[in-house]
# Entry
Amino acid sequence: MKKNKLILSQIIDSLDIETFIACQSEEEGKRIGLSIMEKLGFRDIDIVFIEFLGSGVRIRIRANIYKPGDTYGWLNLYK
Amino acid sequence: MEINSKVIGILGTAKNTGKTTTANYLLEWSNKEGIKVGLTSIGYDGEDIDSITGLPKPRIHVKKGNLVGTAEQCFSVSKGKIEIVEKTPVTTSLGQVLIGKVLQEGLVILAGPNKGKDLFYILQKLKKEKSQLILVDGALNRMIPLIHCDALILATGASRHTDIDLLVDETESIIRAFNIPLREKQKISNQEIMQHHNNNIVIFQKNGYKRQLKSHSLISQKILNNLIDSIDEKETEEIYIPGIVQDNILKKIAEQYSELFKGKTILINNPTFLLVGTRDINHLMDIIEDILNKGINIKTLYNLPILAVTINPFYPKYSRFGKDSYEMAWIDGYQLYQKMRNRLALPVTNIMGEESPKLVTVIKKFLNINR
Amino acid sequence: MNNSIKKRKILLIPLDPVHDVALKILNRKLQERGHHTVLLPPDLPLEEIIGRASDVDANYVLVSRTLGYSVAELLGKFIDMAEAAKIRDRAKVVLGGKAITPQLASELGFDKGFGAGTDFEEIIAYIEDREFQREKEKLFRKKISIPASHAYQYKNNRIKNLLNEITDEIIQWSQRKSSPGIERAKLREKIINVYKDDALTDEDKARKIKVLKEKYLSYCDDKISRFYQQGLLPDKVRLLSAEEINKLDVYIQKQKENTNFKKMRHTQSLPLVFVQYGTGCPIMDIAHIKTSEAWGADGVFHFDPSWGARTEGLLEGVLSHEEDGSIITWENLAKIKSSLHKETIWTVRAHRGLNTPETAVIAGKLGADLTKIHIVYGSLNGGTDPARLTIDGLEAIKYAAKYNMPFDEPTNEELGGVPAYKSFAGLLIIADLALKLKAQPILKPLFCYSPDVMITGKMDDNYIDYNVAKINSLRSIIDAPIWPGEPIGFMTHSEDRIQSSLTTALHATLAISLKVNAITIASADEAYSRGPISLSSRIDTLRAVQEVFRFLGKAKIKPTSKAKEFEKEITKGIQATLEKVAKRGSFINALYEGLLGSPQDGAYPGRAGRNTLIEE
# Structure
């Protein structure tokens, strides 16, 4: 997790994934979306947008890398 | 073994107080004893995930021969074959309520009649199908329809209050409300009041006269003022409130108008109409005591016994991580149990613990089973 | 109409301290229907609400509340109080709110629950005790014929006469000429007729088709005959397996059960919104098509690989292609057709290559609604020999007429650098030709940031004036359907998702304002060339365009006075070009000599199919 954090340290705040997931309900789409982020190693995650229609969900899943008040890795950019 | 069709309702003070767990436990026990069981609910039970908290919920496992009263739309979802005995005219948001006989064991979703009149109708149908014991699962903190049962089991726990002392006080108050004595036979019978005077607040005078108010519920100062204006200090005997009785109005009567009401009887329809008008149930007991101490009588037209109290130390804790997310949490179950047991005159069981056989003893007694 | 509704008495209770807007709107709508309503103010204590409710002798009590922490208990108490106060003896108590479901309503003890996405009409139907035809199950669109509302009347006599002269010559010149493409089309038609003839036995069919196919192969390139004779597929092409096709059929079945569709237009009836598909794989295409349908697309059209235009002959089977464009075969198209919703409009483009008439036949036989044919563009920018494409195109137009498929003509020469007035001259020539052959042409000018416009500075200030001028110029000449594409906003997109979606949406705004018949929109991946278009980027632009319909309503975009100036220029240019072509006296030579687009303009007569004409 720490290693991941290092790689992501130059993201200012968030990492969004915009995609379309084939599923049969909004709940299923939400579950899959969240577990995708979890599988990628993210913990502070949220579904910014989700809409189910017909064949699946259009979804935007957000991983918060830095939130206001955190110690920002990118502040070391110009060291 | 003599069991007439008896209806037990499981009254909860909040979500997740263990109502369905209790129902399941009794269902399992009844099936083991070979008692013919009918099952319905005034809410929606059997889903696997709570639609509000997202946490797992207990499923309802029925066996062959059980009768169920549940909505149309739940039939296809309920796994386990159920034969439709009758389609009733009772409607719910999930369709009409059907009476079904379980042909093959499995899990069911129960969504039954949501108001008293409809529950009464469904109970009659279940009785017609020769159910010996009918279990009515409550929903949330809802209680009104359950007065059509013959007895209640009160389910409460941490999801109502995490403060144990507060919880115990409140439970005691609820039981106190259900201990309000029945109105005894008088010149005007209970029947007559039900049939002819159930729409408005009525003041019964000694000389046989009656005064009617426009309202049916005692829920505002304005109505109280009306009532006070209509009471005759000498002639008034009974005051019947067919609708809701608010606790703070009772409190006002005790504190400001006790002289006027002294010696008279405040007659309520049933304890739930008082509980539903009460904001802080844990103080209700004190208000009732105060009324009685001031020489004012309280009686009820209907009543039903609470057989036992089941407690549940579990509650869904609202989590700060992520919006609308709940996690599982527990209060001290042992402490809760001890304090409840010490305070209440009724049997107390922790529905998740080993104390459940106590519940069975109580039920057996209620059903008149001698074994 | 209002007399037949039983007037009800309705009490509306906003239990939400903040969000009572929906209830207020419902209140207005119910009053408009003649019902008697009482709307309580928000933020009243429960007892007071119950008190007031008891006074109003309502038939329906509507409670609105968003769900939240401890709200469930509040509602449970409310429903109990309503019953104790005898309100439930006379009234149905209904709960509405964002998170409400029938299950939740059941748990909370309400007679009915309405959740997110509920139409106000559904609630009103419930109150009036009648069936509600869920708008979701009712598709918002019905297939309409794009040319139906146009009379094809010429408004400019001079241009009309010039066109007449030019197209008479084309028809004359084309007499007794054929091509391998036309011969294949005829054979293909015969093959399909045999295949569909139920009077024949399977053996008879196989026999006849074998004979026809042998003839067919004699008109094909090696690349194609190799496939029929040896089973060798071209590079990057594979046959889908039986298992894949079975799974696809199941997928199509499931998708067809969907009854939820977004309503694209708001208060407008035009334009129709089309999207292109052609990922290369029919399975992926179908996934994209079904999702696009759900997200509001009126029609879809087939985009095939570029090598298809340069190869004599078509392949067979359900084929997948690793690069852009889905291969045209009877089986691929049949599969895609089988997946379409019955109200979805389907275009199969025939337009610019060596297989033009055969593609028109297949499209027609499969019941495609529209096709695409453009002789001028195909000859000058599409790489096909002008003489060959003129003959083939004519035949394709005849098939289009035969199979009742209106066809659009895209002026894609503009993208090469040809100025609009010249490409419009070509456009009108083919349109006039079509009318003579009893076909129904649809004009397709581009809403684009073309090379000519860049050089002449016509869009230096805005993208509006010149596009408006194009439409108005065409409309001043003839009353014909106009369908800007493919896509609108061509050359204005970047790979940036927002910019791409926005430029699509803005061009759509202009199209809506101009009331054109249809538009084809890009995905947000339009400018991305290193891979296929993603489904989410399709949804992005469909969603953006839907928003634009809502934004604009019946309002209009106002161009500057430059638009009128440009319009005059374009019309003058069209006429001048047609004069030149008519004077030349030979359409084919006009094409070769660059009168409708020259090398300086970036237009070069194509070579594919040169010297393949068959003189009878």
Summary: DSSP finds two helices and three strands in chain A. The radius of gyration of chain A is 15 Å. Residues 2-66 of chain A form a domain with the Defensin A-like fold (CATH 3.30.30.60).
